[in-house]
Design a protein that fits this description.
about 40% helix, 4-stranded parallel β-sheet, single chain, C-N_Hydrolase_sf, alpha/beta, Glutamine-dependent NAD(+) synthetase, ATP binding, about 15% strand, nucleotide-binding
């Protein structure tokens, strides 16, 4: 059992610690906790220092308070901001219990520190989350001292493709050290941007015996397994180098209890009392290792943000979602994720989950409602709206309408030119001037201002409709506005401040454009949505400039001066490989052999100029579900200043000097022969783009 992992700065408040003890008191007194050794997580203050702790108790007695020894401060975690690591290895101290707990347990003092619990038949140790990832993991010395069962209560956030890493770590831990590794992960939305993956499992000697669902709408899921402790002892004794190390390993303090985990009855008694028989295949009732199945990234995208949206919706007490649906890849992806959420809800209700059914009834305001069809549920929970202008095309309107029809959303098609004209009229009345688009002879700033007023008006209209559409439909409450900007556009700054990217929450703000396209291909084929094929084949465009003969003159990649594939490369190099302008140039010269060094330099400079000019936009971006390591989210994933010198003079001078040296070397050799130091190609950086024909850079959108 885990505490609320995202309390964040509330951990500074002693109220959080006090209320945690109050919850523990309820658990200690509960009859359902009798004869079960229970391990719960909570903050504990000891000698005026707050620790992230596991509290183990049995039959109304606290056995051990085990503080976390390694803090997680990488990626989007900030554990060291609120907690201190326990540095006293294999040492325990006395902890004086609060009076309300002492009255229940009859104890005044309990041990706190790095210790293990010894039962009559085995020994149980602990790791907490980051300690499994740490190079000096606790399970190794603990196993050498005879600990046979490791309990790890984790708060590991979900990221696309991360499941492989977690399974490998758990299997390797139990295979290398021998023993049973019980890995329990928090799952769902805990009130913030993270979605926890819920990949709980039980592994013995490298074989995973049981595993919880990775994606579920259930609040509680129990994972059980039955195994023979003698298998662990035989496995360890067979590794002779391990036994030699174990013979001289230092001992952990042991908390001894008169309790046994093994059965003292006959085999027939064990068979009659077993709980989970899903993997039982022989007369000894031992759990066998099932096949480990992984979801492909497209499936993960369809389910992880869907679960996150469901948790947010039911806890926000709103009546559904409002989505501006443009008929493009991004907003269509969000619509499909909401439809995926509806499918998951219907499936959970069919399995008889009472909590999901109760939540749905509360959201729709009908105590007798039973969802049986995903499309019908989507019509109830999702309002989509195509907000057209005189610059919109009939094709995008048709694509939005077709997709809405296929997923079942309550769809509107409106025209917002009246509102735009009214706003421009205010300016014209004051300035006595009329701004024009560039196709009509207007300057770049006139053109940009006219685009931005359209984009921002869509946000105003979206919130108006979100507040009143349930009133129109005869239901109480309002709707959450969904955003649909992706990682690449955020990194490049290719969006307008306070346009439709500004919303209540954004399920795709942590996903790249290329991943979204692959997701839509899979989702359309999986669920028979023919509209998606047309959406993917269309040229990405904001449709904020006038059409020419009914045809588009504005394309996203032309406007940006770079392709989405290139943006994905820049994003990974900048975040994952910590590359600045010069390092990025050095990385890309050998990888982009289809471009000359000068062309690579121009591309890199253009990206960093755009990044610097538009970095301020990240400070107001809608909260998005964290799904990828390369996220540029300003909140926790990517802490950087938002005021830059966009000329990057020192860095760009270094790039120019390097280009000069490469060209001189090439002339000396007669031709370019590639990098002097071979670089292993990486498929994730295989961007294909047309080299810039000129050093003249496209316009930079500053607003």
């Amino acid at each position: 059992i885990r505490r609320g992992y995202n309390c964040e700065d509330h951990f500074y408040e002693y109220d959080t610690i006090r209320h945690s003890w109050e919850v523990l008191a309820v658990l200690l007194k509960s009859s359902i906790c009798e004869d079960i050794l229970i391990d719960v997580g909570m903050p504990v203050m000891h000698k005026n220092v707050t620790y992230n702790c596991r509290v183990a108790f049995l039959n109304r007695r606290i056995l051990l308070i085990r503080p976390k020894m390694q803090m997680c401060d990488n990626s989007i975690y900030r554990e060291g901001r609120w907690f201190s690591p326990w540095r006293k290895i294999r040492t325990v101290e006395d902890y004086f219990l609060p009076r309300q707990i002492a009255q229940i347990t009859g104890q005044t003092v309990v041990p706190i520190g790095d210790a293990v619990i010894a039962t009559r038949d085995t020994c149980i140790g602990f790791e907490i989350c980051e300690e499994l990832w740490h190079p000096d993991s606790n399970h190794i010395p603990a196993s050498l001292d005879g600990v046979e069962i490791i309990s790890n209560a984790s708060g590991s956030m979900f990221e696309i493709r991360k499941a492989y890493e977690v399974v490998d770590l758990v299997k390797t831990a139990s295979a290398k050290a021998g023993g049973c590794y019980m890995y329990s992960d928090f799952f769902g939305c805990d009130g913030g941007r993270m979605f926890f993956m819920g990949f709980s499992s039980i592994t013995v000697n490298g074989a995973m015996l049981a595993r919880a669902k990775q994606f579920s709408l259930r609040e509680v899921e129990v994972t059980t397994a039955t195994f023979d402790l003698e298998v662990i002892r035989s496995y360890r004794n067979g590794i002779r180098s391990r036994t030699h190390s174990s013979a001289s390993s230092p001992a952990y303090p042991r908390v001894k209890i008169d309790f046994a985990l093994t059965s003292d009855g006959e085999i027939c008694d064990l068979m009659s009392s077993r709980i989970d028989t899903s993997h039982v295949t022989d007369e000894y009732s031992l759990t066998t290792s099932p096949e480990i199945l992984y979801f492909r990234p497209e499936e993960e995208i369809s389910m992880a943000p869907a679960c996150w949206l469901w948790d947010y919706l039911r806890r926000s007490c709103q009546g559904g979602f409002f989505l501006p649906l443009s008929g493009g890849v991004d907003s269509s992806s969000v619509a499909c994720i909401v439809y995926s959420m509806c499918r998951m809800i219907v499936e959970e209700v069919k399995t008889g989950d009472p909590q999901v059914l109760a939540d749905v009834r509360k959201i729709v305001g009908d105590c007798d409602y039973v969802p049986t069809d995903p499309k019908q549920l989507c019509n109830t929970l999702l309002v989509t709206c195509y907000m057209g202008t005189e610059n919109s095309s009939a094709q995008t309107k048709a694509r939005a309408s077709q997709l809405a029809s296929q997923i079942g959303s309550y769809h509107l098609s409106i025209v917002i030119d009246t509102a735009i004209t009214a706003v421009l009229g205010i300016f014209q009345q004051v300035a006595k001037m009329t701004p024009k688009f560039r196709v009509h002879g207007g300057s770049p700033r006139e053109n940009l201002a006219l685009q931005n007023v359209q984009a921002r008006m869509r946000m105003v209209v979206a919130y108006l409709f979100a507040q009143l559409m349930l009133w129109v439909r005869g239901r109480p409450g309002g709707l959450l506005v969904l955003g649909s900007s992706n990682v690449d556009e955020a990194l490049r700054g290719y969006f307008t401040k306070y346009d439709c990217s500004s919303a209540d929450i954004n399920p795709i703000g942590g996903i790249s454009k290329e991943d979204l396209k692959r997701f839509l291909v899979w989702f359309g084929e999986r669920h028979g949505l023919s509209a998606i094929k047309q959406i993917l084949e269309a040229t990405p465009t904001a449709e904020l400039e006038p059409l020419k003969g009914g045809q588009l003159v504005q394309a996203d990649e032309v406007d940006m001066g770079m392709t989405y594939k290139e943006l994905a490369v820049y994003g990974r190099l900048r975040k994952l490989e910590c590359s600045g302008p010069f390092s990025m140039f050095c990385q890309l010269v050998p990888r982009w052999s289809h471009c000359s060094p000068q062309e690579v330099a121009d591309k890199v400079k253009h990206f960093w100029r755009c990044y610097a000019i538009n970095r301020h936009k990240m400070t107001i971006l809608t909260p998005a579900c964290h799904l990828e390591t390369y996220s540029p989210d300003d909140n926790r994933a990517d802490h950087r200043q938002f005021l830059y010198n966009h000329t990057w003079k020192w860095q760009f001078d270094a790039i120019d000097e390097q280009v000069k040296k490469i060209n001189e070397d090439d002339r000396g050799r007669g031709k370019r022969e590639g990098p002097k130091i071979p670089t292993k190609p990486q498929s994730s950086y295989g961007a294909v783009s047309t080299p810039l024909k000129t050093n003249k850079l496209p316009r930079l959108d500053c607003d």
